[in-house]
Design brief:
Bound molecules: zinc ion
CATH architecture of the largest domain: Alpha-Beta Barrel
CATH class of the largest domain: Alpha Beta
Protein name: Homocysteine S-methyltransferase family protein
Distance between the termini: 35 Å
Family: Belongs to the vitamin-B12 dependent methionine synthase family.
Organism: Lysobacter arenosi
Structural class: alpha/beta
Keywords: Cobalt, Metal-binding, Methyltransferase, S-adenosyl-L-methionine, Transferase, Zinc
InterPro entries: HCY_dom (IPR003726), HCY_dom_sf (IPR036589), Met_Synthase/Corrinoid (IPR050554)
Order of helices and strands: HEHHHHEHHEHEHEHEHEHEHH
């Protein structure tokens, strides 16, 4: 793929240097921390969206009024909080940085036109990505200023969207698709540009359940890099959604890697859906086949009857500490149900172990050894 130079060489090199030295820590769940604030509809809406739509914008330039039909419930639209409750989002980022996270994820999981359509706020995609990256950037910059020896990186998150490009949502119409590759490409391009403009150090195509969606995201990212003549490191993280160990679009972890390998990501990994224990076999496969860094950020176990997550920081730390001991990890963090307490415990558990050695590195070392023998 890309032979473009780094957009920000100092940051990209600092990240690679750090990865060579240790297992890096990714933050935990944003949603779980937002829940603790028990925000109501008015809190989600804030001033600007007090009436359930964006006061500053009307799709057909009509004057909003009673019964114009634009009002939507915004409760649960966590990404909107970047604009309406920025202090809360920034403080969550800071709590994860205090817990030891090297990388924090932007609050942009659903900030694509595709997902924002559920809230009637498609027009905010660019703004939410840019503002989300800025907030995370500010939190990272403050942490670095307080401790210059510990670099902190902003991971610009591109979520899977609520639609799948390779499967029909309607069992009676198997040929039907709710979205096309090209529609996804356009949506991801807008989100990517926002994340880059807001100061992301890395981009992560996350919680991939449909590899075709991920390919659209990666295609859009390449377009954005080409337009700038420079690139950022890219991470990819898939999600295993069933007991047979496959993604929703039917791939094993190994097939997932080989179908995305051409994009030469900085890291490939698995997150969400399962707890750490159930992910182990699949992370192990990635660790064997991938000539990229391997990451995982599992949920705090499977959801319980109330939709919550039960694994304690100690539970997760014990399981993920073993992953590290087995040499499977380059980056580790948490997904649904994880908190700063989980991240601190995980960071502590993996700190004793060196990062996984990449297969290419093994090969390069072997080549050097051969040369020495030949000399
Ligand atoms: Zn209206
Ligand atoms: Zn999750």
């Amino acid at each position: 793929m890309s032979t473009l130079p780094w957009l920000n060489p100092t940051r990209a090199q600092a990240l690679q240097q750090r990865l060579a030295e240790r297992i890096l820590i990714i933050d935990g769940a944003m949603g779980t921390m937002i829940q603790r604030h028990e925000l109501d509809e008015a809190a989600y809406r804030g001033e600007r969206f007090a009436h359930g739509y964006d006061r500053a914008y009307a799709p057909s330039e009509h004057a909003h009024g009673d019964g114009c039909g634009c009002a939507r419930d915004q409760r649960g639209n966590n990404d909107l909080l970047t604009l309406t409750q920025p202090d809360i989002i920034r403080s969550i980022h800071s709590q994860y940085l205090d817990a030891g996270a090297d990388l924090i994820e932007t609050n942009t999981f659903n900030s694509t036109t595709v997902s924002l359509a559920d809230y009637g706020l498609e027009h905010l995609a660019g703004e939410l990505n840019q503002a989300g990256a800025r907030l995370a950037r500010a939190a990272c910059d403050a942490a670095e200023a307080a401790n210059p020896d510990h670099p902190r990186f902003v991971v610009g998150v591109l979520g899977p969207t609520s639609r799948t490009a390779s499967l029909s949502p309607d069992v009676n119409r198997p040929g039907f698709r709710a979205i096309t590759f090209d529609e996804l490409r356009v949506a991801y391009r807008e989100a990517t540009d926002g994340l880059i403009d807001g100061g992301a150090d890395v981009l992560m195509v996350e919680t991939v359940f449909d590899t075709l969606n991920a390919k659209a995201a990666l295609f859009a990212i390449e377009e954005a890099f080409d337009a700038r003549g420079a690139r950022l490191p890219v991470m990819i993280s898939g999600t295993i959604t069933d007991a047979s160990g496959r993604t929703l679009s039917g791939q094993t972890a190994e097939a997932f890697w080989y179908s995305l390998r051409h994009s030469q990501p900085l890291a490939i990994g698995l997150n969400c859906a399962l707890g750490a224990k159930d992910l182990r076999a699949h992370v192990d496969v990635l660790a064997q086949v991938a000539d990229a860094n391997v990451s995982t950020h599992p949920n705090a176990g499977l959801p319980n009857a109330f939709g919550g997550y039960d694994e304690t920081p100690e539970d997760m730390a014990a399981v993920l500490g073993e992953f590290a001991q087995a040499g499977l990890l380059n980056l580790v963090g948490g997904c649904c149900g994880t908190t700063p307490e989980h991240i601190a415990a995980i960071a502590e558990a993996v700190s004793a172990y060196p990062p996984r050695v990449l297969p290419t590195l093994v090969r390069a070392q072997a080549d050097d050894a051969d040369k020495e023998l030949a000399a």
